[in-house]
Each structure stands twice: as structure tokens, then as C-alpha cells.
Description:
Blueprint: E1 3-4, H1 6-16, H2 27-33, E2 37-38, H3 44-50, H4 58-66, E3 70-74, E4 80-84, H5 85-111, H6 116-127, H7 135-142, H8 151-162, E5 165-167, E6 182-184, H9 185-189, H10 203-216, H11 221-228, H12 234-240, E7 245-249, E8 254-257, E9 273-274, H13 280-283, H14 298-301, E10 305-309, E11 312-320, E12 323-328, H15 334-351, E13 358-361
Parallel strand pairs: 1-7, 12-13
Antiparallel strand pairs: 2-4, 3-4, 5-6, 7-8, 9-10, 10-11, 11-12
Amino acid sequence: MTVLGTRALNRATLARQSLLDRADLPAADAVAHLGGLQAQEPQEPFVGLWSRLRAFDPWELSDLLTGRRVVRTHLMRRTVHLVTAEDALTWRARHEPMLRQRVLGTYRRELAGVDLAELAAAGRAVMADGEPRSTGELARAVAGRWPDPGPRPLGEMLVAALVPMAQLPPRGLWRTKGGVRNAVLSSWLGRGIDPPAPDGSDPVGRALVRRYLAAFGPAASADLRAWCGLAGLPAAVAAVREELVSFRDERGRELLDLPGAPRPDPGTPAPVRFLPAFDNAILGYQDRSRIVDDAHRGLSVAGERAVLVDGRVAATWTARDGTVTVTPLRDLSRTDRTAVAEEGREVALFLSDQDSDRIRIAAPL
């Protein structure tokens, strides 16, 4: 079986993520291809798409949100993701058991003795008037029946797991601040959530395997699970295995992939790219060594924005008062510093609406 080295896997990831060459795609198609963008920080998906698309207009993404073609909702890993409306409705039921378990993992003691079916019914009854509510408002509306857990466990279980919700605009719009207001997902999108297959098969699981590999492959089953948080996918992997090709990484893990997916030559040059906080190009793997050194693995989890140099995390960056500040994690060559500065100026112009191209490269950490 062919062994793919770290650099080969890196270039494959960059190609799938449109980070090797920016793609000529509408924003909606890019969101679909990527399987959504992690979006608990509302402005970060705009940077993620700007770094991936050749002619990205941030107002296009805002229009997709207000037009209900993309939606902010709890999904993979119980985190807020920006996904297409179609994916939200198709994937939500498959994710629900995981969402419940992850909330219980945080609040099991507080929610002990609470009948979750009854709690879900109470939450739906409150939301039946069609009025959007914050998590706290929904929790307080049902707290009289369950006074002991407190509003936060009740609210998080309802909004993140029991009642599929959409976070409504203006939350997540370009250059707009707005608190979280939730509406029932099916009401907001005008169509019911797809139910699980009645015959016990898992078409959604099989589709998730294919979609993940298209955007992240070649990858191991553990990487797939790290991306979506779902257990019970081995059967889905087995069901599509004959469609796939296999490799091994340098650790000996089996990697699966779509046969026609791009796997560029490891020597392919990789441009500097600025990634937003919590970007799935890093978080979408259990083994992230293809893109970040183990010593810096925790940066993305902590919400640091990353700069890729030669395809790997080499710096963090911030933007404040029209200035992009890059903090290298190692010494950069003169050529790399020049490339970082050039791309940093473009990021500054994007974030400032062409008003500032100030870039500062700090001393390495």
C-alpha cells in the first residue's frame, strides 16, 4: 500500500480546502464543499472564505444568511457551524444523539432526573409562537417545571441538542454585531428536518464519509470522527469502502480517499494563507501533523488565527485598528517574511474595506 508522507498529505489538504489555489466558486458552493465552516466567532467565516475564493464578496455571504440559503446552527462537534440550508436539514437528525451526549458530558449532574423528551416537548411548545428567543429566555420559560438544574444547562440542552435551532441574522452578518436569537430550524428554513432512514440504514453517514474525504482526504476514520464528532460511522465507512482507494501514512494508519480527488505532488509550492480562528483545515483531523507541529497543536483550539507558510502553521495573527500583526512561531526567512507581509497587507485591506494595508511582523515567540 502506498505510503503518503506528511508533505504529500499537506498538499492534498491544501488542494481540497482551496488553500493551494483560490477557487472560482460562489460562496454557497464553497460552504457546501467544505462541509460548513466553524462559526462560533461570527466574523471568522468571512476570512475563511476570503482566503479560499478568488473573488469573494463578503456581502454575498450575508445575503445567503438573510436569504436563508445558509444557516448558523449547532452541528459538528456540538459547535456552531455555518452550513447550507440543505445540509442543515439533511444532517441534523444524524447528529442529534451526539449533540445530546456532548451536552450531557458537561451537565450530566445538573440534568440528572430531567426527562429529556419532556424537556424537548416543553421547549417546542414555547417556540411554537414563532418568536425568536435567546438561550436564556427559552431556559427561563421552562425553568418553572425544572427549577433545580438552573437556566444554563436547560438552555444549552434545548438549543444545542433537543430542539434544532437556527441562529438568526443579524448574528453572523458582515460587519454587524448581534446577540444570539434562536428560531426553530424547520420553521426558519421552511422545510422539515429529514428523519432517519426507516430501514435502519445510514445514507447520511455514507454521504458524510464521501463529503469529508472530498474536502479533507486522504484521511483515517479517526480523522473523520474528529471532524464531525459522530460515533457509529464504521458501518458507513464499510458500506462505501469499495468506492474508495487506500493509502498509509508514516505512522502506519490506513487512509481512505476518493479515487479521483486531487493529490498534488509534494513539491508543489504553497502560498502564504491567513486562516481564521477555529478553521477546520486544522481542526478537521485527529492527527493534525500534516498542517501543524504538535508543539502548536493547541493554538487553533484556543481560538488563535493561524498563518500558513509553505502549507504549515508558522505564525499567529491579529487585526486591530486597521493593522494586521503577525507573530511568527519560528524564525522566518527573508523570502517568507516578504510573502507574509504581502498577504498580510491584502488581509488588512479586506478587513478595513480597503482603508488600511498596515502590517506588522513581531518578533518570534
